[in-house]
Amino acid sequence: MAIGWHGARAAHFSGASITYECLGGNQYQVSLDLFVDCSGVAVIPQDLVFQSDCGDLFTVFDIPVSPPTEVSQLCPAELPNSTCNGGALPGIEHYVFQTTVNLAACDDWTISWSVCCRNTTVNLVANPAMYVEASLSSATAPCNNSPSFTDQSLPYVCVNQEVNYNFGVTEPDGNTLVYSLINARYAAPLPTPCTYTAGYTGGNPVPGIMLDPVNGQITFTPTITGNYVVVVLVEEYDAMGNLIGTVMRDLMFTVLNCTGSAPTYGGLSNNTAGVVTGPGAIQVCDGEPFCVDLVFTDPDAGTVLNVVSQATTLLPGATFSVNGTNPAVATLCWTGDLASSPVNVLVQALDGACPIQNVTSTAINITVLAAGAPVNAGTDGALAVCSGDAPVALFGSLGGGPDAGGSWTGPGGTAHSGTFDPATDPAGSYAYVVGVGCASDTGFVDVSISTPPDAGTDAVLSLCSDASPTALIGELGGTPDPGGAWTDPNGVPHSGTFDPATDPVGAYTYTVNATAPCVAAQAQVTVSLTQAPDAGLDASVALCSSGAALGMLAQLNGTPDAGGSWTDPNGNAHSGTFDPGTDQAGAYTYSVAGTAPCGNAQAVLTVTVSPSPDAGGDASISFCDNGPAVPLLGSLAGTPDPGGSWVDPNGNAHGGTFDPASDPAGVYVYTVNGVAPCANSTAQLTIALQQAPDAGQDATLDLCTTSPVSPLFPALGGTPAAGGIWTDPNGNAHGGAFDPATDPVGAYTYTVAGTAPCVGASATVTVSLATAPDAGQNTVSSVCSNAPSFSLLPLLNGTPDAGGSWTDPNGLPFAGPFDPAVDAAGTYTYTVAGISPCVDASATLDLSIVPAGNAGLDASLALCDGAPPTALFTALGGTPDAGGTWTDPNGNAHSGTFDPASDPVGVYTYQIAGTAPCADAQAALTVSVDAAPDAGSDAAVSFCANAGPQGLLALLGGSPDGGGSWTDPNGNAHSGTFDPLVDPVGVYEYLVPGSGACPDATAELTVSLVTPPDAGSD
Q: Do 808 and 661 sit in the same domain of this protein?
């Protein structure tokens, strides 16, 4: 088995169960079996909880950890590499925690254990805790031992392979065990079912899992890799059917991707005594020696299987041997002993694969039955009956003097009366059983049923003398068996197919032989013949549609009987005389009535009527010499048949289509050949030709919208005849001279009338007009010198066409647009090219440039609120023209001199009036006034030399702003608080910094000290 193994996990408990053993009296040794993967954390002492319905509740704490046993499913060579030994391969250890307790006599003792948490699994949601329990009824069953699990492994199995696993449960007290699948649980704190993922349940923890309730055999085929929790409950019942105890095992199956295959188990076979009651169960009698085989095979060639069992430990005197390696046949031999019944014997087959072995396990459930006095069911016999025989007693078919009073079972194992009825009972082996259990004997009667032959029932067959050969077996009544033999009325063997043309009439006998004990069967078919009528043989006749009436009977072949009747092709009665001029061609049927069983006789006369040819009647016609080719046939009188032939006036063969441009006028002859027996038919067509008119050929005339009136006739092609008439494109009469100013363009039609059969001729002159170009009208315009560049075309008067070209005042090409800042003033010429036959058009634009006014550039002016009035003009950017006007931020006229004491701050606008087409010029001056700082006014102060510190700011004159800075008489920074004890006397300066356009403000405080008075000491 090849696997992938993951690293350490905190959740490491993979299986658990609780069992108990009575040590005498009320003393029990309780065992907690834990299966732990070695990649988890260390195992610690465990607790067991004991509770009964009699009011008892206690916990055994900290059951010590005993040395574990490694049960890794590894081949021996890889065991040193398991995680239990510091390696990387999956390692599993089996821990047994044991404690001895005294349990007072009481039913419904529960011993439980729980832990957090499980490994991650496929079939459980999240990682729930684990809970297992065992129960016992020590009052009903004093000193009872629980079932115990002899298989101490954690199964690793292969995906998509059948898994066979057995827990190897033994029960030392001989009680009955029942196995079932239950929900995994956890303590919360009461036992609570775990939540299963969708598609899984406790009863179906792996899809398709099967559990044998007798021996606990588990079979399933996993389809998804991963861990699966399977929980099995084992219930123990005493001889009275009382439930006296339960154990459970919560176990994790690990499903892996494998490169090899697990061994397969073929069930029990070759038992020398006893009765095999299932794939893993056998019943034997007490004291009866028996052997039974278990066959294990492995699909992988070369695999050597190792088959092991604890049979010799569980079964005193038993032997267990293995022959072969693949297949490996294990043979268990033992002598039935009631003292050891029932018992489960675990057998395991290991394939030795590395690193992980594939293991298949099964259990043999052996039940030993008590023996009794010998009885005799006789010796086996046989009974052959015919299915139609009367019922017969089976007992008489047994040999050897069987004991009476036994019971019978049929081939399907169902009870039987012992009287065999061939009409209802099946063939097969009928068993006669005398006695019960191991004091019983069985004899068999093999019953075979022969089906009696069936020749059918007698019948009568009446045939017509002209009938086809007939199989006689199909005429018999009933359902005759095939394969019999026929004899004719003279007793001569016959084929069984009656031929009216050769076989004699009379009784034909059919015989079907039988298999003993059935006898042969016979039936007869009595055959008689009736003479068939004769309607003659089918025939055909050809007639001309203009021929005489004809009697049809004489036209049939053979020797038809007279007196029959005719029907026409439509099934209607007919006289038997055919008139080609009126009767329908087709199949006419002659029928002569037959006498039963003969049917009517019929013959068919197929009449074909060839129509008489029709070349039509003579006629005359005229054609125009420019007309199209015309089929001649339609010009004949009458209804001439198509498919005939023509000759022209010169006696030459002609195609039947007259072309006025090339064929001569005259008499054309049309001939239609007749189909025998009909003769040919002819007709003549006399043709005359007429000269066609000429209106010339179509032409075109291209004019300009400014062209003069133009005659249309000279524009026609060819040699048109004069005297025709003109119509305009709208179909109205027209004089023939086109006026571009008033006439519509389009096709003008010239028509010359024709003489019948010639139609008038017409030709068209298609007139088109090219629109004359429009360059607009000469224009004089001016532009401001600061205008953006622009297109000249919109300045032209009129509606000039776009797409023309310009030249500048120097006659050079000008691409535009016009930029007053760089392009020269003067006369610009615009020319639009004409489309033939129209000529080019041009117009001039006299353009002058007017200088724009200059109000300067936008600027800003910041003043202090104590500043004098200031002229705004000098604060503008650029080089503004003098002589403009000012408006204040409120839009009022302003002198242009800003007084911070009275004028509002904001945007002042300077404007220079423009000369058309130039607009007025403006510039904006944004004026702001900053507040001047106030350091107060100079002052002087005297302090007593022993006074405390004094703040200086409040001692200045005026209302000085706070936030300024002080310097002492030495020019050093000072805090602004004068301390007479440390600070020098002199001038202290206070400075408030200015902002914007305002400078800093300062004030001085002159400080002096006064010596305090001294009154001396007391």
A: no
DSSP secondary structure, 5-74, as one string? -----S--EEEEEEEEEEEETTEEEEEEEEEEETTSPPP--EEEEEE-TTS-EEEEEEEPPPPPEE---B
List pLDDT tens digits, range 816-872: 899 998 999 999 999 999 888 888 889 999 999 998 888 889 989 888 887 899 999
For residue 565, which amino acid is it? S
| Cβ proximity of 280 and 216 under 8 Å | no
Report the DSSP pairing between strands 645-647 and 573-574.
Answer: unpaired
Which residues lie below 8 Å from residue 247, measured CB to CB, with a gap of 6+?
17, 18, 19, 134, 146, 147, 148, 149, 233, 234, 236
> Which residues lie below 8 Å from residue 520, measured CB to CB, with a gap of 6+?
453, 511, 512, 513, 514
| Nearest-angstrom CA–CA distance, 616 and 604 | 36
Q: Tokens standing for 593? A: 């009535």
Which of 752, 770, 788 is at the close of a domain? 770
Is the four-CA dihedral 502, 508, 509, 510 of positive or negative sign? positive
Q: Which amino acid is at 557?
A: N
Q: Tokens at residue 875, please?
A: 């604060």
Co-location of 469 and 498 in the same domain: yes
Distance CA 494, CA 952 (A): 161
As a whole number of angstroms, the distance between CA 915 and CA 852 comes to 7
pLDDT digits (tens, 9 = 90+) for 612-659: 888 888 999 988 888 899 998 888 999 898 989 999 999 999 998 999
* Separation of alpha carbons 459 and 461, rounded Å: 7
Q: How far apart are CA 122 and CA 206, in angstroms?
A: 9
Cβ contacts of 140 within 8 Å, gap of 6 or more: 107, 238, 242, 244
Record the tokens describing residue 262, joined without a space: 């697990």
Residues 21 and 164 in one domain: yes
Question: Strand (E) positions, 199-301?
Answer: 210-211, 218-220, 226-237, 243-256, 264-269, 275-278, 281-285, 289-297
> What's the order of all strands across the beta sheet hosting 746-752?
699-704, 761-770, 746-752, 725-727, 733-734
Give the span between the Cα atoms of 633 and 631, in whole angstroms: 6
| CA atoms of 354 and 155, how far apart (whole Å) | 15
Q: Decide if 462 contacts 595 (C-beta within 8 A).
A: no
Judge contact between 887 and 819, C-beta under 8 A.
no
Domain end position, chosen among 770, 805, 826 = 770
CA-to-CA dists, residue 739 to 559, 598, 711, 735, 837, angstroms:
98, 101, 9, 10, 15
Q: Which two tokens stand for residue 928?
A: 């702001």
Asked if residue 523 is part of any domain, the answer here is yes
Q: Are residues 679 and 627 in the same domain?
A: yes
- The CATH number that applies at residue 330 is 2.60.40.10
What Cα–Cα distance (Å) separates residue 527 from each residue in 101, 522, 601, 673? 103, 16, 22, 61
Are residues 306 and 429 both part of a single domain? no
Residue 204 near residue 122, CB atoms below 8 Å: no
Cα–Cα dist 602/951, whole Å: 155
Q: How many domains does the chain have?
A: 10
Domain ranges, residue 907: 859-930
Task: Give residue 68's identity as a one-letter amino acid code.
Answer: P
Same domain for 152 and 235, yes or no, is yes
Give yes or no: residues 55 and 128 share one domain.
yes
- Give the confidence band of 9 by pLDDT, cuts at 50, 70, 90: very low
